[in-house]
Amino acid sequence: MVLYKDGKIYLKIVYWGMGASGKSTILKTLYRITKESKKDIIPIGELQIIEKASGATLYFDRGLFQSTKQNEVYYRVYTVAGQRGFTPLRRKIFDKTDDQTDAVIFVVDSRTYFLEDNIESLLELKNIANDRLLKEIPMIVMLNKQDLDNVIDEEDFKLILKDEKLWYEPGNKFYIWNPLIYTSCALYDQKKDIYRSFHETARRAVLYHVYGEGKAPTEIDIPQKSP
Q1: How many CB atoms are located within 10 Å of the residue 25 CB?
Q2: What pLDDT is recorded for position 66?
Q3: pLDDT tier at 160 (50, 70, 90 boundaries)?
């Protein structure tokens, strides 16, 4: 749910995925990239990281980022604890009544061994979103840990999205909002597509807000030059 405060616009973006898929590392890498390089989005303040000694997220991680092109636009970015048993907490972070999510980045542990765990996490997200994914909440997919062996590729995961009715065929009005699938490695020294995927998610969140009034706008609703 878009938040307006003191003349500023705050959009909420959530990294979602199974435990140990790399969400916290991705957020830390995004923070470092946008802090050290000239980008369209910059971090404000420090990240809030709440984790166990093992490095697993205990509650959530949170960061605030600002658009450098539209200074009044801010992005409140969260990760969720992915371990089993944290469903009530994930629901609270994602869909709190007065603080709902505006866009989601689904992070996949790309190792084939964890395919079923990734699908379970996707199904939980789909259930909590209650048929709003793509139609009201833009979603991007990150196939993380692509630097490892025996990994899921883009076509593999596209089939999963199709099975779960999260992929539209040409001719459907939601086709242009099909999830872009990025292959990534969360570590800063590799940082493949970490910034690009977040930038696209932020762009879509703004388009849904500005041209769709909280829903997926059609192609005719969007001017050629988008925000």
Answers
A1: 21
A2: 97
A3: very high
Q: Is the pLDDT of residue 227 over 60?
A: no
The per-residue pLDDT of the chain, averaged, comes to 91
Q: Is there a contact between 157 and 143 (Cβ–Cβ < 8 Å)?
A: yes
CB 11 within 8 A of CB 209: yes
Residue 180 burial (CB count, 10 A): 17
Question: Domain 3-221, CATH 3.40.50.300 — does that match?
Answer: yes
CA distance 186 to 17: 13
* Tokens 């997919």 belong to residue: 141
Q: Give me the residue spans of the domains in the chain.
A: 3-221
For residues 39 and 135, the answer to whether their CB atoms sit within 8 Å is no
**Distance (Å, whole) CA 44 – CA 66:** 7
- Tokens 């050629």 correspond to 224
Residue 192 has pLDDT above 90, yes or no: no
